[in-house]
Amino acid sequence: MRRLLEENSGLRVVLLLCLLAPSLVSSITVSTPAELHASRGDAVALSCTFVSTSRPTSKMTVDWSYRPQSGGPPQTFFHFSSRAFPPLEGQFAGRIQWQGSPARGDGSISLINATLNDNGTYTCSVRNPPDVHGSPTSHTVLTVTPKTPSIRFSDIAVLLAFVLLPSGIITLILIGWMLCPKKQHNQSKAYRSPIEVTEGEEYGVYQPAPKTKRSTCCHLYLMDSEDEAEYYNLKKRPVDEDYAESQC
């Protein structure tokens, strides 16, 4: 009876170890964001973290695969094993950078210059023997949209300068054009040349007296007696400085 009890207790221990053993080796867990959104041309951080009961060794590997949005089988484009192996050809050539740190449980990468063709599902897979069970993979759905144009403050300032400055100059010109004709019209009334002054107008401008044309010897020859008397009377008057006697 006692021997039977010992055998039953030993069997229970074996069964308990069998139940606990998978949980001891299947403790690796990988986590990634469920969704990511980016604009065309952005650098996208594809985050991947993992938790493992075993310390990462040289046998630990990280793989990233991609499945297009249109569907199809996933394609591995990045591999890490002691060092990073970025893609040298294909869709992601030259656009993948390793950002992870296995000692810290990080297997992240970055996607440079995202395009609309990068839309799809990205899967991060981590293997760290002896942890070979659990949840070694995780998925992220990336959505890349066209980049919306952004208006900077400097662009607005330049636009306002090109619109407001010409408008202000034109406004000043119109105001000056409306006021200056009136001023010129008032000044034209204040002064008029002797040629523009008609008979009966008085603008304070001196009108010189008409000059009397003096007779010459040629004229005297043709004068009669009455004309000669008038001539001698005029000759007795003072002679103007501007007068120059002509000769026949």
TrEMBL record:
Transmembrane stretches, start-end: 156-179
Subcellular location: Membrane
Superkingdom as given in the UniProt entry: Eukaryota
Domain Ig-like: residue ranges: 22-143
Gene3D superfamilies: Immunoglobulins (2.60.40.10)
A Pfam family: V-set
SUPFAM superfamilies per record: Immunoglobulin (SSF48726)
Chief place where the protein resides: membrane
Keywords: Disulfide bond, Glycoprotein, Immunoglobulin domain, Membrane, Signal, Transmembrane, Transmembrane helix
Signal peptide region: 1-27
Any one GO CC term of the record: plasma membrane
Membrane topology designation: Single-pass type I membrane protein
SMART domains according to UniProt: IG, IGv
Name used for this protein in its record: Ig-like domain-containing protein
